[in-house]
Design goal:
By secondary structure, the protein is α/β, with parallel strands linked by helices. The protein contains twelve helices and 15 strands. A hairpin with a 5-residue loop joins β3 and β4.
């Protein structure tokens, strides 16, 4: 996982790190955008405003391969790369990435701290009731990271529910926390961690028996750390997927974005971006936001 920085370190000191990144090249220069910055207040036409001011503010995470922030501030990842390409077609010249925890993404969007979310924020009923999701860019699976040999044989959510002694690490506000909550896994069995690295640290310190995260996120972590095993995709976790998320008041932008995204999905560049980050573009074919928004949670 090249240049991965913990979200805690990126947020330390400044509160929120805002990374000015050019749509043409996701430039490495950093700039600070205060919450509720120049675009504070819901715009009557966000698309026209973004074109006029020359940038769009984007809520992101730092969880490869969905989003990745390098030590120099460079923002990449599957979701930002697709967003960059579609925004270019819409005539928006720059994107400013604002790093935030998953639990703060939708509240921050609706408080106008950023204009869109592109962070692998998986669709489910509760989220879809609060924002307008684009059609999906990614369809993903969930897995468990476990100590070598998976000593407790953790392969399913039902197994966790059946054994009160099991402790599972999850990101607060993450899709996985919602999966456990929907399955009625008690909070006492959930170990809240800050990011992928701290999830692995919880395993090593025996504070958790497993760490639940998207399969590809765990594979990205495994590139730099071979101390854990990755389970097969969890059968009783719902199918997941993500796209860009907009405020409900920005329906015009949402509609324009979806139109350009649909055209972009038909180009070789879309498949190339997904392949670069380990995703299969064919898995997204025929899957709609309406389908994924039916996921409980």
């Amino acid at each position: 996982m090249t240049g991965n920085i913990s979200r805690r370190n990126l947020l330390r000191g400044a509160g929120v790190a805002a990374l000015g990144v050019s749509v043409a090249g996701w430039a490495t220069g950093c700039s600070t955008v205060a919450p509720g910055g120049p675009a504070s207040g819901a715009a009557s036409n966000l698309l026209e405003q973004a074109k006029a001011q020359g940038f769009l503010r984007v809520g992101i995470a730092n969880e490869p391969p969905y989003t990745q922030v390098g030590a120099d501030g460079t923002v990449t990842g599957c979701e930002p790369d697709v967003l960059r390409a579609v925004c270019k077609k819409l005539g928006i010249g720059e994107v400013q990435g604002i790093i935030t925890p998953y639990e703060s993404m939708i509240p921050g969007l609706n408080a106008n701290r950023w204009d869109v979310i592109a962070a692998g924020l998986f669709m489910k009923e509760s989220r879809c009731a609060q924002v307008l999701y684009s059609e999906p860019v990614i369809v993903s699976t969930e897995s468990f990271a476990t100590p070598k040999g998976n000593p407790k044989g953790i392969t399913s959510v039902s197994a966790i529910l059946a054994d009160p002694s099991m402790r599972i690490a999850v990101l607060p506000g993450g899709f996985e926390e919602g999966v456990l909550k929907t399955a009625n896994v008690p909070a006492s069995q959930q170990v809240k961690i800050n990011d992928g690295r701290s999830g692995l640290e919880a395993l090593k310190a025996n504070r958790a028996d497993a760490f639940m995260l998207p399969t590809l996120s765990l594979k990205a972590l495994a590139k730099d750390d071979s101390s854990f095993d990755i389970s097969k995709p969890v059968d009783d976790a719902p199918r997941t997927g993500s796209g860009a998320a907009f405020r409900q008041s920005d329906a015009a932008f949402h509609e324009a974005y979806n139109k350009e995204l649909a055209a972009f999905k038909k180009t070789p560049e879309f498949a190339e971006i997904l392949s670069k980050w380990g995703f299969d573009a064919s898995v997204v074919e025929g899957v709609t936001a309406q389908d994924l928004c039916k996921t409980a949670g």
